[in-house]
Every structure is written in C-alpha cells, then in structure tokens.
Amino acid sequence: MAQIQVQHQPPVTAPNGVAANAGGAPGQFVSTSLYVGDLDQNVTDSQLYDLFNQVGQVVSVRVCRDLSTRRSLGYGYVNYSNPQDAARALDVLNFTPLNNKSIRIMYSHRDPSIRKSGTGNIFIKNLDKAIDHKALHDTFSSFGNILSCKIATDGTGQSKGYGFVQFDSEEAAQSAIDKLNGMLINDKPVFVGHFLRKQERDGAWNKTKFNNVYVKNISESTTEDDLKKIFGEHGQITSVVVMRDGDGKSRCFGFVNFEDPDAAAKAVDNLNGKKFDEKEWYVGKAQKKYERELELKERFEQSMKEASDKFQGVNLYIKNLDDSISDEKLKELFSDYGTVTSCKVMRDPDGNSRGSGFVAFSTTEEASRALAEMNGKMVVSKPLYVALAQRKEERRARLQAQFSQMRPVAMAPSVAPRMPVYPPGAPGLGQQFLYGQGRHLHR
DNA sequence: AATGAGCGC
C-alpha cells in the first residue's frame, strides 16, 4: 500500500523549501510537508493536530484563513519531523472524515505550475455510487503515482458518480485511460478520459461539421462575386451573401454556404486572418443567433468578473455625498491618500447626483487609509459615508441576510391576501413595505 | 448526465 519510498538518509532541502527528491522512485516526492484540502469550514488547527499526531510526530499545523475575516480557506498544512511520518500520514489518513467531510491530503507543493498545467489529470464517470475516494484511489494507483484523487459528492457526502484522479505524469494517466476506459467496475462500464475544462469541451463541440461560413471585416467594395471567387477555390458553394443596409451599402460582413462541410472547414483554415484590400478577414463557422448571443454573454460576464476582481479591495463606495460634488471634486477629495485610478458620482437620468459614488485607488493600502481617514468626514454639508465597495453578489447576499433577519417582523398572515388591503387611514406605507418584502422573499 | 480544487509562516 505504501508507495512512498522510505528515506534512510536525511532529506536534502531544495531552495524552495521543499525537500528534494533524493532517492525516491522517479517522480515521487520526499517531503515532510503535507497540504490538507477539502476541509470543512469549521475544522480547527487543533483538530488537524489531534488527527495527524496519531500517526507521527507533528511539528506544526495550520488551517489557512482569510486575513481579515478569519474564515477558513478550506485547506491547511501539516508538517512532520520526518518524511516517513508524512508518507504514512498521507497513506493512512487520506480521505478521513473531519466534521463529516473527507479531507484530501497531498504533498505540499508551493510551485503551482503542475496544478495549473493539468498534466496527468483524468476524469472518470458512470461510477457506481458505492465507489468512494479510497476505492477510486486503489483502483487507479496501479498505473502510477497519484497526486490527488476524489469522488464528486453532494452535501451529504453521497457520490455523484464521477471523480478525478491527478497522476504525476502524463504516461500514467494515458495508461490508466487505455486500460480502464469502458471497463466494468461493479458491473458498470466506466468512462475514463483526460480531464477537460469546460471551454476545451466546448471547443470539441465547435469542431462539429458545418456548411455555413461567416466572414467579417471585408472591405465595403467587396461583392458577392468577389466572395464566390475567393471561397469557391475551396469547394462547391451553394449560396453567398454580403449583408447590406437599407441603402445597399455593405455592412462589411457576409455568409458563404458550402455544399461540403469539409470544404467549409478548409475555407476557414485557409482564409481566416488573410488580408484582402488591406483588410484582415475574420473567417469562421457561422453561428446561430442564440450561439452568438450566448458567446457574447459569456464574454461579457467574464470581463465583468475580471473588472470586479481588479477592483477587489481598492474600490471605495461613498454615500451621503453633497449634491454639489462632481467627479473631479470627488477625486480631489480623495487624492491625498494615493493614486485615484477611477472616480464616479452616480447620477439619475436627469443628471442629478444620487449622493453616492465610487473611488478606486491603485493599491489596497491606499484604499484602506482613505477609508479610515475619510469616513465620517464633513464635506460641504454632511458627513461622508465611506466603505469598501462590495461586489454585486456580496451585496445581494448581505441584503438577503438582512431580509431574513426582518422576516419574523415582516411575517405575512398565514393566508396572505393577494393584494395588500389597507384599512382606511392605516399607515399604508408600512404595510406595503412589509408585504412587499414578503413577496420578494418567496419570488 | 456529470469535467474540482489548488499551497503558508
């Protein structure tokens, strides 16, 4: 069972702090430092210590936490005094439940390049639900050294019937795929293949055959006949169109339909990126309208996420702003504390200040100093409110939490009237407020 | 049907 060779000489420490691979089997790793992942939120340092100290001499443990919130990041480290104990712990304690959740142990590897590369990573599906992490590990360990392995589970720990094994080499992964794909395990034929990210799978999907080709960035003078001539070299064309506006002016894109999908693919390969009349053509598979919308939406959401990641910790939310404060004035107010990279007063459609805005700094240090110094400061007529800007989801989560706090107060009668009915002279706004919230919660 | 997470003092 133990696959990690025992070291008889002291480990040689590499410059990065990880013990060098002195004498281990090829690709195997000799170290005293373990990474422990998939930790339940509430697992503590002492729980880690108590568990891991049972199988060897633990030097130190830690559950990693967010610096400001102290929330567990769901992983930690255990350091042993010798590599044999670390190897034994990995072998014996991997997948032990802690707070009812299986922990996943790996050697600590600070260099993220192996993880990021995804080399040797495989995906297994159609697994019998009775197969657990350990069984998966045992089944696949004969093909090579496993760095990490797990079964996808639901909240209760029940298998979802698929899982992942990361080997330390591509060869091991390939031989596992060759030997096990399609084999029966517990009477079920399992799928075993390389792990693919979503977009890589989409890429494979996009390689499905197509006849219709989209061409854009053509010059305004390019005609159907020009397209026919250029695209026609790659195969039989069934239709060509250059899209035009009401006046017949080219919109500089068009479609070419081929009889044979292989010809369409060849045309894309050969013509995409080529220059005609100084214009670099984009030539690709024509998308259905919904496909294009989906792609644009995904791209938009991606860039929004990147933008909000970029602002994480450097963007301040300001409210209680005097109406006279402009973007420029706001920037001026905050530029004492650092480099203001963007600045905006929120306005209604008529251009009136909404009394709130955002100021972004180039570093989190500047932002937190500005927050500390400017929050509550009198500006023109009133004290500023300054806080770290929240991302949309965070704000939604917070508001939701507030709503649920209010629920006991806002509770509607067990049989709620369809519409709020106000007795004459009743404080209508209060009623409306309460029912409005109740409805929102049950949306 | 299903394609994770992820490295410190």
From TrEMBL:
Keyword Repeat set for record: yes
Keyword Zinc-finger: no
SUPFAM superfamilies associated with the record: RNA-binding domain, RBD
UniProt feature coiled coil, ranges: none
UniProt KW keywords: Repeat, RNA-binding
Cross-referenced InterPro entries: Nucleotide-bd_a/b_plait_sf, PABP_1234, PABP_RRM1, RBD_domain_sf, RRM2_I_PABPs, RRM_dom, RRM_euk-type
CDD domains membership: RRM1_I_PABPs, RRM2_I_PABPs, RRM3_I_PABPs, RRM4_I_PABPs
Highest taxon in the source lineage: Eukaryota
Domain annotation RRM: ranges: 32-110, 120-197, 211-288, 314-391
GO molecular function: RNA binding
Pfam families the UniProt entry points to: RRM_1
PANTHER family registered for this protein in UniProt: RNA BINDING PROTEIN
Protein's UniProt name: Polyadenylate-binding protein 2
Provenance organism: Prunus yedoensis var. nudiflora
Lineage of the species this protein comes from: Eukaryota, Viridiplantae, Streptophyta, Embryophyta, Tracheophyta
